[in-house]
Amino acid sequence: MKVAVVGVTGLVGTVMCKVLEERGFPITEFIPVASARSVGKKIKFKGEEHTVVSMEDAIAARPDIALFSAGGSTSKEWAPKFAEVDTVVIDNSSAWRMDPDKKLVVPEVNADVLTENDKIIANPNCSTIQMVVALAPLHKAYNIKRLVISTYQSFTGTGMQAVKQYNLEKKGFETKEDEMAYHHPIFENCLPHCDIFLDNDYTKEEMKLVHETRKILGDNTIGVTATAVRVPVDGGHSESVNIEFEKSYDISEARQLLGNAEGLVVKDDISTNQYPMPLFAKDKDEVFVGRIRRDESIENGLNLWIVADNLRKGAATNAVQIAEHLLGKGIIKQRAVSHA
Q1: Domain spans in the chain, listed from the N-terminal domain onward
Q2: CA 141, CA 126: separation in Å to the nearest integer?
Q3: In the list 124, 214, 262, 320, which could disulfide-bond 128, CB 3.0-4.6 Å?
Q4: Catalytic residue ranges
Q5: CA-wise closest residue to 121 among 157, 60, 75, 85
């Protein structure tokens, strides 16, 4: 099994390598790929040193799987070239998510949509992934009518430059303009500004929650509105999600559905102050849900607090889980045999 990690020196790429190691994904040849300025660098994977190679060299190696985390423009240019040599690309950028011909997948929710014909598979946005893991069983039972979402997103979701800005500010250093990932300080601050502003005055991140949620749950009738906030947290994203269902529901049954959902951990005991927090979600692959309570202001309303490590389940782990599903269903094996 040849596996390439594209964008291997970046924040998510580094975590992808870690997750592949931890989960024991079967790899006979590891191909680290990065931009031209990183080609020739040495990285360690499973205790062995590997040399970072170019896109062209990686394609020539004809990997079975390529995990992409190198940005949308890079993916648009190179993912099809990998697919042309029968490589299955699992892409972490926004490049393919809303392409009607590409699958947008969270394995616990909709892995069954994948087939042998899917050569480029989109990994959803980090904030969408953790939310739909919790929403899927509830939507199936009660039909979600409307969602009001507020996110509290770690600065790590912006990448290496944001981590650098935060660390400089934390140490009391003045950040220069070219060192800033944000328009304002992030240390001891909250920025109601994730990604760029669009013509409708929402940010791109907020609209990802709208469109991606509908696509993954397979229901374009769900009303969704979101406010995405960047916070000085290293460890994960948190979300306050207010749900209005079409059907009436029983709160104890809703709790049970959440408790039985794959990949979801209910942490909700207010008598002992137990609820999800990014501090405890860091470095974990599960999605955590708590503060489960009826919204008393509307009929059929429910409130949830959802937390996950954005670099793991929100990015790297979800991508590796997609690869695991393809392998488990024999799709990758069949591809490997076909071009061997």
Answers
A1: 2-95+315-338, 127-309
A2: 24
A3: 124
A4: 126, 237
A5: 75
Q: Which two tokens stand for residue 121?
A: 């598979």
| Structure token pair of residue 170 | 């934390």
| C-alpha dihedral (206, 208, 209, 210), degrees to nearest 10 | 90
Helix (H, G, I), strand (E, B) or coil at 50: strand
Q: Are 289 and 302 in contact (CB under 8 A)?
A: no
DSSP calls for 87-143: PEEEE-SSSSTT-TTSEE--HHHHGGG--TT-SEEEPPPHHHHHHHHHHHHHHHHH-
β-bridge mates for residue 2, sequence order: 29
Q: Of 13, 5, 213, whose CA–CA distance to 98 is shortest?
A: 213
Nearest CA-CA partner of 125 in 12, 45, 42 = 12
| CATH dotted code for 2-95+315-338 | 3.40.50.720
Q: Output the six-digit token pair for 223.
A: 């009303």
Helix (H, G, I), strand (E, B) or coil at 158: helix
CB-neighbour burial class of residue 192 (10 A; exposed 0-12, middle 13-18, buried 19+): exposed
Distance of CA 64 to the CA centre of its chain: 22
**Alpha carbon distance 108, 258 (integer Å):** 13
Q: What is the pLDDT of residue 331?
A: 86
What's the rounded Cα separation, in Å, for the pair 236 and 245? Answer: 27
Architecture of domain 127-309: 2-Layer Sandwich (3.30)
Beta bridge partners of 274: 269
Cα separation, 256 vs 52, whole angstroms? 47
Does the pTM surpass 0.90? The reply is: yes
Say if strands 237-245 and 144-154 run parallel, antiparallel, or are unpaired: antiparallel
Residues in the chain: 340
pLDDT tens-digit readout, 190-235: 999 999 999 999 999 999 999 999 999 999 999 999 999 999 999 8
Does the structure show a pLDDT above 50 at 23? yes
Tens-place pLDDT, residues 49-100: 999 999 999 999 999 999 999 999 999 999 999 999 999 999 999 999 999 9
Report d(CA 175, CA 81) in Å as an integer.
39
